Amino acid sequence: MPENHFAVIGAGAFGGWTALYLRRMGARVTLIDAWGPGNARASSGGETRVIRGTYGPNQPYTRMTARAMQLWKEHEQRWKRHLFHKIGVLWLAGKGDDQFERGSVPLLREAGIPCEELSTSEIANRWPQFNLDGVGWGIYEPESGFLTARVACQVVVEQFIAEGGDYKQAVASAGDLEDGSLEALALSDGSKLVADQYIFACGPWLGQLFPQAIGDRVRATKQDMFFFGTPAGDDSFSEAKLPVWGDYRGRFVYGIPASDGRGFKIADDTRGPAFDPTSGERSVSADGLRAIREYLALRFPRMKDAPLIETRVCQYENTPDNHFIIDRHPAAENVWLLGGGSGHGFKHGPALGEMVAKLVLENENADPLFRLARFAT
Asked: What pLDDT is stored for residue 173 in this prediction?
């Protein structure tokens, strides 16, 4: 009896890891991507992503992060590649409204993610780089940190190929993919990809390919990233001396200290304007830069006049409730839809890929939180 053939469309964090785990579980797998893993248009592109377990109360992502951390570390050792920079994550809680942080602590402990509750004096003693105006206390996750993004996507695909997977760079047809069971997928090179099941992990393009099932339930937004130059001869704003940090007070601003010769990264997590990931111009806004400079001067006074040395525009692929989509197409039993990373999906790649591969192979349903039916209620 021939082995089942699975086609995975999209080689980002969700698609690449899903393809890898399907292959490891004995399936024949073809993985395709329009511009290649970690490309500049992809939601999984760019240099770095935060990995942290602080997520607030009543959610599954802290537990998923714990599993993902374990898998990232295992694969680093297996592949002998440095992908997980364990420099810690500091979450700054505001004075007064700190329900998000208070609700995070018990879930972190339940998931086995080490964490410390720090007073402002303890934070100031450890990291005097911060000005703590408006901060009430903090959560520190010493085992968390940041991941390489583009490089990790490329490594996953390299290993997928090394383990017997088939990878092709091509564009999947945007024809009618929603009219019953999918028999073949037309590709931009003129060929047709025939598989038993198709898993679409197309990030911000998911709604374009599936206007009926997805449509605007996945919405791409423009997100500006800024990199500032640190003082010459001073490593106090580098990953050697500073953790990743997040400041959740009205708006969520976060940063990654200078690493690998790049600048001090800072960004506002607030969802930006609608953005076309294929043809959108990737230039940061002047207003965004002005707001980030004001924040930088407040929170890191010694960086007040730091030069802007690099910018980057990426996109989030948001769902209305910020939860992932993991489900079969309602009109096609052999089509799975996987996406809605919503700005926080990258870290979960290996855990999500492991989970989705099992669901697909065992013909099971995802948790209702991730299924499309939730949008009908």
From this structure: 82
